[in-house]
Amino acid sequence: MLRRGEHLSAYDLARRALDEDGHSLTLAHAAVLSLARAGATDFARTEFVRLGLAVSDDPEALSLGGRLLKDVALSAEGARRRAFARASARAYVAAAASGGGRYGLVNAATMSLLAGDMGQASELATGAIDLAGQPAGQGEAGYFDRASRAEALFLLGRQQAAADMLTAAVAQAPGSLSAHASTLRQLSMIAAEIGAPTSWLEILRPPATAHFTGHMFTAREPGEEAALKARMADLVRAQRIGFGYGGLAAGADILWAETLLAAGGELHVVAPLGLASYVETSVRPFGERWVGRFEACLARAASVRFAARDPYAGDDEVFAYASRFAIGCAILRAEGLSTRAVQVAVWDGRSAAGPAGASADIAYWRETGRPQAILPFERPAPDAALAAASPATSERGVKAMLFIDVRGFGALHDAQVPAFFEVIMAGMAEAIAGLSAPPEHVETWGDGVFLVFDQPSDAAEAALVLLETHRRLNLRARGLPRHLALRIGGHYGPVHLRVNPITGAQAVVGAHVVVAARIEPDVAPGAAYVSEAMAGILATRHADRFRCGYVGRTSPRKSFPPVSIFNLSRR
Fold it and tell me: Rounded to two decimals, what is the model's pTM?
């Protein structure tokens, strides 16, 4: 099983293992499970068959088959929903019979409920409770065993007993927040199906995630700063914040970071610049004592992300991009944990003059409709001597980029190349021409295509349209192998907009173009993966249209650190 922080690609890992020994069932299972968790259900089902899991009698493979059918059922309605739920229940029953135990029976019971067979759901739930053996011990094994019992009790209408068992489950693994979130989604789905209350499930709700922001300021009187931190601490407790994402500039950022760490929360820093430049631009000018506090917070941070790693070049747009990156990370984390996201801010009520700052962050978050908690803050007008340099004229922009290639192109015979361009490349051209928001920049070479868009939502729509168009092509009719598949990598970040001195055409270049290019080789065939920055923007502003499921991290390459990537799909 892949865990957050491990390297991608599970798909490639399984393929290599199968190429080597032909029977790596465990790795094949991990690959398909990672695709399912990311929301790539169709491709996961294809790989489930191709990798031999569909004909296995292994209980984990049978359970995974039930999981894939369940995912289809939950995304369907009416007769299709009930049909796939029945098929899922059969797969889980087979898993239980092959040694899957209580887990298989409980899932079979839940899917029987979705199929409309309450009699079978009750029978299977009773069997799960009566299954021989006492609850497992402590840790996650004990948690999942008790959570399965709680689910069975809930299905039988014994809500108080289910609540008591759930309390016991959480006590076995109080820090297993991802497990709690998974159970919360499952039991909430059952509650919605039977019209039951959900307040008793709040014991599973992980702490909230937060984006924190506020003003930079010089050193204040000790009593004044202590009073502000006390208000911050009260707010962190009241909002039950356990994860904070933001910058680490002098003033409010550092105070939020210190407050969060003191409360036992996780600090996740998003730096707009390379650290040395960040300190010289946003920390040291406001007082030397802030530098030591910056370093202390950084040392205790759970993670550090970079919007850019270059020195400050007078372009404040990079600070705005960093804030939106942090906001996206907070919202993605909240979605992953089935919890709430909130913004906490220290603000003087003045509007921002430029694209960045507390006022801009607050306005951007407010547009999402999510909760905010703002601490009023009195400060003198910003000191021009301490403010960042005025933005310089810059041929830069923040753009969404797609890199596309066709897996299997390199193995084509020369005689097949003309058909490749007449069918696959022509299909892409037609799809691109039909977009309501076409790309503002296009480059191609061989089977590779590079598209640039102004808005991440337009790039996301283009990626999905291209995948859907390719799936409809009749490759075999033109003598092309059916395994030819698009791989699309997407990213959103600041780029340089220049003119190519050789061709005279526009050129889009920079470190963030490389980020987009490095994602594409790790994409599973027939899928689109996007960076955390792009996934965060989509989750923040377009969650009604797109889903971004966490897949893993890109494979490490020389001079290029791994980045988190997400499978892109429609809601």
Answer: 0.86
